[in-house]
Amino acid sequence: MSTDRSRADSPAGNLDAALAEALDRVAATEKLLVAMDFDGTLAPIVPKASDARPLPGSAAALDVLCRLPWTTVALVSGRDVDTLRGLAKPSQLIALIGSHGAEIWLGPHADPLTLTPEQEDLLASVRTSLAELSGRYPGTTLEHKPAAVVLHTREADDDVAAAAEAEAAELLEGMDGVFVTPGKRVIECAVVKSSKGEALQLLRQEVGATAVVYAGDDTTDETAFNRLLPDDVGIKVGDGFTAAGFRVGSPAEVQLLLERLQQARWNR
Ligand SMILES: [Mg+2]
Question: pTM of the entire structure?
Answer without folding.
Answer: 0.76
